[in-house]
Amino acid sequence: MRLHGGVYSGYTQKVRIALAEKGLTQGIPFVVSPPEDRSGRRVRNVLGLVPVLELDDGTFLPESTPIIEYLDALHPEPPLLPTDPLRRARMHALDHYHDQALTPPIRRLWDAVLVGHADPDVIAAAREAVAAVFRHLDAHLVGPYLVGGFSIADVAFMARLQVLPLVGAEIPPECSRARAWEHRLRARPSWSATGYPPLPRPG
């Protein structure tokens, strides 16, 4: 198997974190898929999106969460999916919340950094949208991780937390539970094993 993805793709990063958590980084190599390689991307995924897991039979499995669930079934230790049905359902709900609430403002901030200029009101609104997500999480965190044990939900948010300093955003200072959770994520070996390279600056 091989993982095809983008160097700065948050969803690729999500799978790379999962691979690191399971000790599979060496066994499943990461192949960089350049954004300009549109035809190659569409061969692997009709939508032209990454990440995609290339299977041993030559077929491809797209989408970060299904890829991680597949890998979790093949390599169940350490588990990334709760066995409890309600916790698993909440994990999926948080994974979806991440996609809908956090990804769009992060992308707007990312674009502003890469372009080098943007409407200050757009940047301020994006940073406030990011802050609102972590205020919501802070209000609902009751254990060490989002659904108790470490899960795909934490993996998804970790991939975005890693990029916050690069785009000038942060968890609000008053969100003590969310900040403690981030500290626990930073302490995991998978965090340091999967950092993003420095962002290219507009020249």
Characterise this structure.
With 203 residues, this protein is of the alpha+beta class. It folds into two domains: 2-74, Glutaredoxin (3-Layer(aba) Sandwich), CATH 3.40.30.10; 85-193, Glutathione S-transferase Yfyf (Class Pi), Chain A, domain 2 (Up-down Bundle), CATH 1.20.1050. Helix content is 53%, strand content 6%. The protein is built from eight helices and four strands; from the N terminus they run βαβαββαααααα. The protein is globular.
| Widest sheet: strand ordering | 2-1-3-4
Count of structural domains? 2
Helical content (DSSP H or I, runs of 4+): 40-55%
Strand content: 5-15%
Which fold name fills CATH's third level, the topology of the largest domain?
Glutathione S-transferase Yfyf (Class Pi), Chain A, domain 2
- Quote the average pLDDT: 93
- For the record, the CATH class of the largest domain is Mainly Alpha
The number of distinct helices, counting runs of at least 4 residues, comes to 8
User: How many strand segments?
Assistant: 4
Describe the protein's topology:
Layout: E1 2-5, H1 10-21, E2 30-32, H2 38-44, E3 52-54, E4 60-62, H3 64-74, H4 85-115, H5 120-140, H6 152-161, H7 176-186, H8 189-193
Parallel strand pairs: 1-2
Antiparallel strand pairs: 1-3, 3-4
Offer a concise description of the structure.
This protein is of the alpha+beta class and 203 residues long.
